[in-house]
Amino acid sequence: MSAPGRAQTAVRRVLVYGILFALIIVAAVGLSGLLERAVSGGVLAADEAGLARSLAFTVIGMPLAGVLWWWQRRRFADPAEKDSLVWALYVVAVSTIALVTATVALASTLTAAIEGRWDAGAFAVALVWAGMWVWHRAMRRSHVTGPTRLPTVAVTIGAVYGLAVLTVGAISAVSALIGAALAGAQPVLGASQSWGIDALQALAWAAIGGFVWWWHWYRDGGAAASGGFAQVALVVVIGAAAATTLFAVGTVLFVVLRLLFDVDPRADVLAPLDVAIAAALFGGIVWVSHAAVVAARPEGVRRGDRLLVSGIALIGAASGFGVVVNALLAALAPVIAGADARTLLLGGLSALAVGAPVWWVAWRPAVAASPDEVADRARRVYLVAIFGASAVVAIVTLLLIGFRVFEFTLGAAVGGSLVERVRAPLGLLSATALVFGYHFAVWRHDRSIARPETAPAVIRGVLLVASPDAAQLRRDVRAATGAAVTILPAVPEDGGDALGDDDVPAVVAAVAGVAGPRALVLRVDGDVRAIGLQDGPARELGPAG
Length: 545
Fold this sequence. Notes:
The chain is mainly alpha-helical and 545 residues long.
């Protein structure tokens, strides 16, 4: 297909799927409005403006969406249509929006029922958007319309979303129970009604999230997804779980230390304990369970997991160190500034005691890095990110310290000693300097032992003389080489010599031996051959002279 033809096709797809997306939203809103009136037990003619809008959206939006989909569905006989990125993004977008809308509406219905109310509007929205999700799930799984690009992105998003709802709901439910126990609630209706309703509502959210996660993780194959997006999502889930767990454990330790050494009222000290215990419990469960999944993934994913956990723990440890310095400086300030020094010190020690051991285990500073680990791109990005963040924090804190010093010198503000003014940014600056100094030394050491890299030949484009229907061959070669792959369709008479979907290993092996930026791959006398091509426009040679 020529370049103008490809551009026209791309524009057509964007317009068609954009219009279809809008029509589906309109039809779903209209149908939800009509269904709400049907299940609410009220009069259909009530709220004439709302009824007119729902009728218009349904009667006009649904037929237009149906006709447009019927017209577009015929094009899926062409494999290139299923291979369209626009089609894949459309399926991911609608599936995700439908899933989130349906689950939130269903949760609203259940929470209202727990309170003794009937939310007809939420029930109607849940029913309509659940049907929309089922329809698009069938599209995604169909051999006729299923997109060949991003095949597991919608499943991965659904699994992550369900896990997040499950975790937050479980934390809320357990924290309500712990809070009631800490408050000394008695198991009678009058005393337990509020926290009991809160716990039941949170359990409803957790049940919905658990079902969504289970369905996507097990029934739709999210656990076996191996694409780049799935791997990144897995690492992000572990990072979020690690951050939640470490912060919650630090909070629990902080409460315990305050109970032992602080003089504040007991009720104020215990206030954050219920949420902290629940978050530590369920955050730890998510962290440990997904760490076992990461252990079976490639080495690059495992390194990314360790680096992310190391960075999160480093933030906690550095923050704790800075707060400890802040508290020690507060002890040197006048008495009016040192009233909160003990609480500050306990908070800094808690963060430092939790973050430092986890950072040590994840980063492993006592183990010498291997040349392969030193050459890992993720490690280099991690070190650069630490440098960049440290530089930003250092600049901001230096500016703040300078402002406070000049403010004190010029007498622009009344009250407070110089130490009181600069102790918070000075503590942060000291932690930043420590982090920067250590990681700079690591970076210098990595550079000293890094193996010299030879720039490999990079294939940017591959031309395949293949069967016109060899779409799978194009995708597999593109995934294996990272190059742009173009199919040059062979004429039917020569179809026996054209490359097919079974020739992926031979094509990849042939391309690996090409030194040029582009390669032409074809079958010659039964063997797969690759010819290196130079960059530049094709030249037509005329007759001599």
